[in-house]
Amino acid sequence: MSLSNNSSAQERISDLVKQLNAASHRYYVLNQPSISDAEYDLLFRELEELERSYPRWTLHDSPTHRVGAAVSDGFETRKHREPMLSLNNSMDEQELTEFYAQVERLLIGDAETSSPIEFCVEHKFDGVACALTYENGVLVSALTRGDGENGELITDNVRTIKSVPLRLNDFASKSTPNSGIIEVRGEVLFLRSSFDALNAERLAQGVETFVNPRNAAAGSLRQLDSSETARRPLTFFAYSLISLTESTSHFAALQKLSSYGFLISPIAKVISGLDALIAFYRSGLLERHALPYDIDGLVFKVNDLAQQIKLGFRQRSPRWAIAAKFPPQEAFTFLRAITVQVGRTGALTPVAELEPVLVGGVMVSRATLHNEELIRSKGILIGDKVVVRRQGDVIPAVSSVVVGARTGIETSWVFPTHCPVCGELIVRSETYTVQRCGNPACQAKVAGRILHYAARAACDIDGLGDKSVETLLANKIISDLPSIYEINSVKLEALPSWGALSANNLLVAIEASKTRSLQKFIFALGIRHVGERNGEVLAREFKSLDAFLSARSFDGINDIGPETSAALLEFLADPIEQRMIAKLIALGVSPQPYEPISIGETFIGKTIVLTGTLFTMSRADAEAKIKALGGKVSSSVSKKTSLIIAGAEAGSKLDKARELGVTVLSEQQFLELLPK
Questions:
Q1: Phi, then psi, of 400 in degrees rounded to 5
Q2: 607-673: same fold as 330-428?
Q3: In this structure, are residues 104 and 63 in contact, taking their beta carbons and an 8 Å threshold?
Q4: φ, ψ for residue 489 (rounded to 5)?
Q5: Which of 360, 368, 482, 609 could form a disulfide with 583 if both were Cys (CB 3.0 to 4.6 A apart)?
Q6: Are the C-beta atoms of residues 381 and 410 closer than 8 Å to each other?
Q7: pTM for this predicted structure
Q8: What average pLDDT does the structure give for the chain?
Q9: The dihedral sign for the CA sequence 49, 55, 59, 65
Q10: Residues with Cβ < 8 Å from 311, sequence gap 6 or more?
Q11: Highest mean pLDDT pick, 298-302, 328-332, 452-456
Q12: What is the tens place of the pLDDT at every residue in 468-505?
């Protein structure tokens, strides 16, 4: 940041110190974060740069002088045996490259013939750091990070965490100095499933929900009543072993921790050279959403402990380690308005219109609010400062409200009584809590249904996207699903934006869609609760379209539950839907009967995992082929995994498969097994 004079620099430094200290207090002590981690990191970096440029204006209470946050008044405090320093962050591949270059320069200088430096890689858990002390193998105390020098004594609370050994396995005191005293450092966190269950319980009790799993873990550890902590299913992962003299590498220390009975990062391994660091960072970014817990990056540590000693420390962090941060999954912004979106089934979904904010590398200006009940239960008001969360390819959602940021000008929102698109009165089904537009001719419902039918996973009509469907509806060229098959080149070429080539391409795609597989057609119909997987299940069960349309019961079919069964029966009995399907058939739509492909026992009944980047097909296409061949696709590797198909830059899943002895196929080997 460029400032014109010393006075403005002094003011900005003072302002940043106040902002960061206030944010740190809300985050660490009150467990009510007011800004995102990414925002905090940017402000902190700005403060560091200003203090380097204007050292005379550095304040005594600057957060650059400490690690973590002040300890709470509710717990006894103790000094750490060794300071619990934080790690420097790299925000992108360029900064990771700069870290590697610095380590290389400090360790080997300008030597041209040196082996690549070894690093140990681990997940950067998004939890709460703790230090556990064991005497002769027995847990005697536990401290939070606190301010890095002193931590809160939370021993009773930590003892309630089932993944924390109260007595170490295979412990031999003779292997350690100081009467067998060792310290284990690690991270306390919530698994995502446990966090969701906790928030659901709090919602049911009318208690404010937690913003994120890290916030929930911090609040759980700081309960003055340890029985309350015991009710919350926390997990502990160890990442550092202090006072162990027999290890010569960080990875060996991790293995010792594992033998003691601790969980360690499942991806922990030794890699060499910059290319390996970059490749691991990229694969970690792709796989973060499949993990059962939140991570916000990877940690790379120089593996050789002697090299760590040579590299030494800065004031706040070691020179031998870096936290390679991923783009943030959540951010704070303001809710400017709430609009309502009408889906293909007529369901009305409230949508948050936001002040644009960068989340997970994508600029977000809209996010789902799911339904009226969620808005009411979370007390969301227009004008609120809110937390927006984005995971994987999931639509961004408003996860919580920063109640403490309210100014009094926020206003409540009332769900509309009529459809915002067609004006029809909104109806609420007795079975479902979702409000719906009951007008079958509502343009929003028609457009949504056509887009779903034409999607790649359904009847795959390339050229029928948002813009083209909007244009065709506006010009009355289409009005429902069957009308797709009544489009002709004369009508298309009459439109200003359509030429002969684009019109012909669309007509070719429409013609090809008439003979898609039965499972794709069933999914394309847009029946409530019937996704791709159920489309395949139903096709396998009934084999032909006639048999499916004649079905009067879905009881006893695997994966078809009561809700799905009821939705199927309602759909098949609806006269409007019956006429629509009859018209599709009359216009030449003829889904291909289900025929499982037999290629021996390679895929049938097997659990298969895909990892890495495939070049000859999309991940969705590969999954579809596996399912068509009788296999089941899983997102995680376990003892039940039969095969793993590894594309380029395959990461931790491939490593785990090899450890478990799972058969690994390359993309080329997979292609060779497919029917010609």
A1: -165, 175
A2: no
A3: no
A4: -65, -35
A5: 482
A6: yes
A7: 0.59
A8: 85
A9: positive
A10: 103, 106, 107, 302, 318, 319, 320
A11: 298-302
A12: 999 999 999 999 999 999 999 888 988 887 888 889 99
Task: Find out if CATH 3.90.1570.10 is the number for domain 89-325.
Answer: no
For the chain, the structural domain boundaries read: 6-65, 89-325, 330-428, 479-586, 607-673
User: Topology of domain 607-673, per CATH?
Assistant: Rossmann fold (3.40.50)
Q: Among the residues of 550-638, which ranges form H helices?
A: 562-573, 575-586, 619-628
The end-to-end CA distance of the chain, in Å, is 61
Q: What is the pLDDT of residue 665?
A: 82
Active-site residues, by number, are: 124
Neighbours of 321 (CB within 10 A): 21
**Helix, strand, coil: what percent of the chain each, to 5?**
40, 20, 40
Q: Is residue 621 within 8 Å of 582, Cβ to Cβ?
A: no
Q: Are the C-beta atoms of 62 and 47 separated by less than 8 Å? A: yes
Two structure tokens written together for 219: 């609040």
- Give per-residue pLDDT as tens, 203-229: 788 787 787 888 889 889 988 888 888
Res 16 pLDDT > 50: yes
Of 329, 223, 242, 284, nearest to 93 (Cα)? Answer: 284
Instruction: Fold for 330-428, please state it.
Output: OB fold (Dihydrolipoamide Acetyltransferase, E2P) (2.40.50)
Structure tokens at 383: 């004008």
Residue 430 has pLDDT above 60, yes or no: no
From CA 505, how far away is CA 526, in angstroms rounded? 25
Q: Which CATH class is domain 6-65?
A: mainly alpha
As a whole number, mean pLDDT of residues 261-277 equals 92
CATH code reported for the domain at 479-586: 1.10.150.20
181-190 and 234-242 strand pairing: antiparallel
Whether residue 185 contacts residue 144, with contact meaning beta carbons closer than 8 Å, is answered with: no
Comparing 271-280, 497-506, 586-595, which segment has the lowest mean pLDDT?
497-506
Rounded to an integer, the average pLDDT of 613-634 is 80
Which residue, 91, 23, 17, 19, is CA-closest to 54? 17
Q: What is the pLDDT of residue 3?
A: 57
